[in-house]
Amino acid sequence: MQIRIGAPITLPNSSEPEPDIAIVQRVEDNYLNHHPYPENIFWVIEYSNTSLDKDLDVKADIYAAAGIPEYWVVNLKQSILVVFRDPIDGKYQSRQEFISGSISPLVFPDVTLAVAVLL
Asked: Which residue among 3, 20, 22, 66 sits deepest, i.e. has the most Cβ atoms within 10 Å of its Cβ?
């Protein structure tokens, strides 16, 4: 696993968004020759304030269409963690909101993160 902060990822729609945090597979060339592709991405996290509507709608659809299994939006306006999971046909099938407690990413079920730390 590798954590990339503010670094580009490459999506099939020829875009290269720069999520606040992308948790990706570690590869031999350490992404010197290309940015991570969707199949290399475990999950993406965006911290959102002024771009909240775009992050919850447009970016969620873009990441779901790319098949990224998990997308978290930290809503800084309301101190809510919004978790999108299970992309099918370009839409996330699951959307959950957390204001407290803990959460584990799908790909690392043994890792537990306190929601308060993210907020």
From this structure: 22
- Predicted TM-score of the model (pTM): 0.91
Structure tokens belonging to residue 45: 């996290």
Counting beta carbons within 10 angstroms of the beta carbon of residue 57, is it exposed (0 to 12), middle (13 to 18) or buried (19 or more)? Answer: exposed
Count of beta carbons in the 10 Å neighbourhood of residue 61: 15
CATH 3.90.1570.10 fits 2-118, yes or no: yes
H/E element, 86: strand 80-88
Question: Which residue in the block uniquely carries the two structure tokens 């490459």?
Answer: 10
Among residues 79, 87, 91, 83, the alpha carbon closest in space to that of 117 is found at: 79
Q: What residues does each domain of the chain span?
A: 2-118
